[in-house]
Protein 1
Amino acid sequence: MGELAQDILRLTAALLAGGVIGLERESQDKPAGLRTNILICVGAALFALVSGRAAAASGGDPNRIAAQIVTGVGFLGAGAIIQHRGAVSGLTTAATIWIVASIGMAFGCGRFALGVLGTVLTAATLFGLGLVEARLAGIRTRATFELELEPVADALGGMEAVLERCGVRRVSSSVSKSPQGLGLVLVVAGTPEQLAELHTRLLALPDVRTLRRR
């Protein structure tokens, strides 16, 4: 097989691998969807190819360009992680970007078996464990409650009692203060029934101005 044919095969394999993984991300309405994962996988494969060809022609180190892929992917992954009022999101998207780039590098280096295995394991994790998480969500899940409270001394006093009464577990919390009042963000874990009861009880508190659940 000629060099050009090998290059086409490697890039095509990277495109298909990125498409399989990106399809799951697209179906979940994630920021890094089908096109993004394809571009990352093909781009990593192309960089690996260029690195290998340049090193073969000049006798240089084939790892120099490939090593920079990790740094570049790190910036992409960091951009996908969002921290807002004590809640962190985008970690799975960032991890997917990272592993898609490594799969692309495997294909770019001609390691087809390794690339296929990485694609299968990643797709199985995203598709299969997504179903498991959906089943577990019916048993116990997390929710974030954003509250605006009256600026009174005991506005936070009844929160712990309400959480204990509903049987939910407080994962994290953060409080902010402004001239308009107090802002409270609660991240809790519990069953759907417990979270629904918590929502109702929080709304009934006299010091709660607004309540948003997400």
Protein 2
Amino acid sequence: MPEMKIGSKMIGPGLPTYTIAEVGSNFDHDLQRAKDLAKLAKECGADAYKIQNFKAPKIVSDVGFKGLQVAFQAKWDKPVTEVYRAAEFPRDWLQEISDYCKEIGIDFFSSPYDTEAVDQLEKLGVPAHKIGSGEIDNLEFLQYVAKTGKPVILGCGAATMEEIEAAVKAMREVGNNQIVLLQCVTNYPSPMADANIRAMLTLKEKFDVEVGYSDHTIGVEGGSDDPLGGLTVPIASVALGARIIEKHFTDDRTRKGPDHPFAMEAPMFKKMVEGIHALEKALGDGNKKVEPSEKDTVVIQRRGIYAMRDINPGESITHEMVEFLRPAVGLRPPALPGILGKTVNKTIKAGEPLKQDDIA
């Protein structure tokens, strides 16, 4: 795999996990609120603040969605096309939100859904592009994005291995191998039983790319079934080797809007980021050794060889004369075969440990 960098951060083994706060439509069509959420994401430890760039007429069809409102969209109280129109992030706001993110020190990029959006994001100098799962078989568009030469983070929700293979091939054909595949379940919220985190490992092995997880699980109160409030899948994914974690982000899940109900609220997002970085330390280097914090415990938890009765000078040591007790001062149990039958050169009182110097 080639070295990959997003913003100022390298992505790869042994490096800190890259966390993305996905705002979606949670800016509620308010630029100041979008900035406030960016600042909040930064305070929660997110590496990136991400929005979505689409224009409703270029992503959804009024005719196609007429009378069609299924899956998670069935919960919407307005027609699909109206919801998309209300969720558009105005493109004349992009420069300002990009500048603001630079000012506060958080990476800014987006999920573009048309070539015009890609071109505008490129002018802003975004460090990467995130492609939503719904575009995985839009190969012409994938190649357009890949030609930017930027890292492409591709969601793989509701996709077959054959579709993912075609997508990866298309991007590599135009010379871009900076690809991160995100395991994802495209239901909002998604059930824990469908998370299939191990599929992430399959993607890594099959396509020789870095991987991560775009997670839509949330706590029981959010309509999902994670007793840890949406932490289980991200933390477990990092334990298995995820390099990027993306999670929908809000300050209040009760606000009105299609993305708020399944988004992770700021306090829990902060806990997720802290948990991820704590886990990275806990994973260690894989080499089994006595760790610095446990060196002193060896003496108090292991056993030494102790005299069960007084042993007088010149007596030969027998098994019946000794017992193994804590702490492990003096000789330890593995030394016993080497001293059986040997004589002691001093009196060893009952309850005293045997030491190497005591053996004649």
Protein 3
Amino acid sequence: MATIPLRRDRHIEALRGLACVLLVAYHVIGNDPEHGMHIAAHDGWRLFTELFIHIRMPLFSFLSGFVFQAIVADRTALSTAFGKKLRRIGIPFVVVSTLFYFCFGLVNHDFSTPIWQIYILPYEHYWYLQATMLIMAALLIANCLAGRHARAFMTGLFPVACAIFIIAPTFDPDIFAVDSALYLLPYFLLGQLLRVWSLNARIGDVPARRHVVVARFGLLVAILFALDLAEYIGLNQLNFARQSALGLLFGLSACLFLFFARLSWRPLELLGGYSYTIYLFHVFFTAALRKVLGILAPGLSMGVYFAAALAVGLGLPIVLHKLLIRSRWTALLLLGIALRRPSDVRARDIEPRPAKATTT
């Protein structure tokens, strides 16, 4: 088992792990009655997926924004940053989405979608990588142009991004998941602003301040969660749609509450260390399990199936990561990791870095 290194950002890994659990659970249950466990609308399982829609991928994007270095000094640094992001996110996006296209096309006997579209338009859950690359590229360029005013630029951009989020413009065609990039942008920017204004240290490292912030955002999240639940079961007419003012407030508040709560649990930290690999490959394993159990145990209860699929979707990608990291080429092509020295193999295996990106 990989060892979780002792460092100050263990709570970041724990939150990545939590986001992974929510993501895999969502795909196991399915986004509609035609997928996953084939759950009908307003079933208890569907309630689970719907109530976390404002936390699941927003939390991933918030954390990606926090760890991302969006401010670059000059064009050389800009070029270097672009190269790193294309390697870490772009290469696995192309390779793994292609594998997904052919594997699931063969299994389902469906190649109706032209393969070139999967690289340009949103495709399955890999839209998140497209959207995140778009956000990162835009911020890197904009901040390079803004120069010493980069922090002020991103601060001013945040309310604009929130307004666009609520307006929810759509593009046809949705090139490189630009719709989703605008959906994720407020969360990504919030994480980035915590970083560039050193709010993690100013608040998070001062217990008295942190406890006040956690209490206030915790109360707000609890109220919004209760209102969202009431809306779902028909007790009020509030709008908690995916892109709504209340949905955004819920998502931003939840991200801040979880971030400053400093969640720390070693199983989640372990999962968080492999979050990128889990994101990329969990659907391969959960889909395979569904096929196998459909043949060997067709009458299996939903609860048992859910637990088994969740364990497989979280655990087997970690095993796969340990295999892929043994080869320089598989590490690069499937994980976006560049191994240069033999010693890197052990270092990366112990502490894999998730893409600053990981919908759904």
